[in-house]
Design brief:
CATH superfamily: Tetratricopeptide repeat domain
CATH topology: Serine Threonine Protein Phosphatase 5, Tetratricopeptide repeat
InterPro entries: TPR-like_helical_dom_sf
Strand order of the largest sheet: 1-2-3
Protein name: Bacterial transcriptional activator domain-containing protein
Organism: Curtobacterium luteum
Number of strands: 3
Number of domains: 1
Oligomer: single chain
């Protein structure tokens, strides 16, 4: 299993499923003070994706709001809708500072949808984009790449054949 990665004050990215988890609510709220979407993020990261989605519905569709809606849909099991939205966001944000964020979130949606090979491609690109920048963001991209690579190796035809040989 991949280790958890510190995300910010009061929260981590779990190695088990690459989802953020609040570990210290007071520290999280202090760290996010002034963010107009903190309540939505708190709901999403505490497993209340439907409530978070309901709060997002009336807001203007900025790239950030659209990304949070896609994350809600992913967590609610509508992986195809999440991937479609992230495909659009990646296309719109290509060659901008937001590209890495959108690719990383698309990779998580792809992984949840069972498309580990495509997730690996996105995580590799995110690692390239983040190399030499914020070490915490790079660590989360490397974490995602490790998880996606492990998932891809478990589902590849080569690993299934190797597993069959070992069972004989």
């Amino acid at each position: 299993m991949t280790s958890d990665v510190a995300g910010g004050p009061g929260w981590i990215i779990r190695g088990a499923d690459l989802r953020p988890a609040i570990t210290d609510l007071a520290a999280f709220r202090d760290g996010m003070a002034g963010d107009p979407l903190v309540t939505v993020i708190e709901l999403l990261w505490t497993g209340q994706a439907q409530r978070a989605l309901d709060r997002l519905q009336g807001l203007p569709r900025s790239p950030r709001v659209r990304a949070l809606i896609a994350d809600c849909r992913r967590d609610l099991g509508d992986h195809a809708a999440a991937v479609r939205e992230y495909d659009q966001l990646v296309a719109e944000c290509g060659d901008t500072p937001r590209e890495a964020v959108m690719r990383q979130h698309r990779a998580k949606a792809l992984l949840a949808a069972g498309h580990a090979d495509r997730a690996v491609e996105d995580f590799r690109r995110v690692v390239e984009l983040r190399r030499g920048h914020d070490t915490a963001l790079l660590a989360s991209a490397e974490q995602g790449l490790a998880v996606a690579s492990a998932a891809a190796s478990r589902t590849s035809p080569t690993s299934a054949i190797a597993g069959d040989r070992g069972a004989r």
